[in-house]
């Protein structure tokens, strides 16, 4: 397998309902992860984009969170519909989606 140009990490941390930190699982991370998988497959981007689910990345109250390397750009409060924008603008186009990025004080 060739080295991917970009690597996307999707937080899939799950905590019990009512946990003070919350979790990306309770915010819809499964839909976000599935949409990344579907779009990468539909666009045949397997060799260019790596996709990995991960545990907690920190800002649980702003989930689902996604981290893109090598740039180190973190996105938060994502919805399924945001995935196509991230793929087209950032992963393919090379320009991070400013409106979806975590605030500077968080990441």
Question: Could you please describe the fold and organization of this structure?
Answer:
With 107 residues, the chain is of the alpha+beta class. It has one domain: Glutaredoxin. The chain has 2 helices and 4 strands. A 4-stranded mixed sheet has the order 2-1-3-4, with helices on one face. Helix 1 (29-42) packs across helix 2 (82-92). The protein is globular and about 40 Å long.
Task: Name some characteristics of this structure.
globular; 18% strand; four-stranded mixed beta sheet; Glutaredoxin; alpha+beta; single chain
What's this model, at a glance?
The protein has helices at 29-42, 82-92, and strands at 6-11, 49-54, 66-69, 73-75. It has 107 residues and is α+β, with helices and mostly antiparallel strands.
Tell me the layout of helices and strands:
Blueprint: E1 6-11, H1 29-42, E2 49-54, E3 66-69, E4 73-75, H2 82-92
Parallel strand pairs: 1-2
Antiparallel strand pairs: 1-3, 3-4
Helix pairs in contact: 1-2
